[in-house]
Write a structure and sequence with these properties.
about 5% strand, 8 helices
Amino acid sequence: MNLLTEPVPRAVRIAGAEVPICWDFRTSIRFELLMEENLPDEEKLSRALLLYYPKIRFPDEQIEEAVEKLIWFYAAGKEKTGRGEGTGHESAIYSYEHDDEYLYAAFLDQYGVDLNNTPQLHWWKFKAMFASLRSDNRIVEIMGYRSVEITPKMPREQQQFYRKMQRQFALPLPKSEREKLSAIEQALLNGGNLSGLL
């Protein structure tokens, strides 16, 4: 899928039929927040399906495919390539729950988009805009602090500064987006076992 050459999807194909999917960015943010909740796995699976397909009740034989399409949509149509996936040990550098004010301000500042009042914004477009935020936005600065690797080669003052910033802007449950996506995918495809993932 290429944002420059193809329209963003508003439906997915399940069992050979076009099925509408809730494509607004708020749905996928709610999905990610849902995965962080302390709920039974089956309830998370059920709620995830209701978020993305609120008017559809899938027969048992279609649930796995519906989940696969949900994950594909959440990943913005990007297939895992195995390249550039990192080591799997990175900490989260943002949180939709804890960084909501910074994200809101960044979108308003850079794009003039009021995320609270915009009627709808496709998830894939939201993700592209988020990934392209300028470095002078506070959220990008904070993500930089969270992601910096403090090494012994750094001057002592610099190490102290970054440690202070990492403590100040620490997130409660650090996991990278890749780890979250991989864990969500595995749990949903293996019977909805999501406990302790996020």
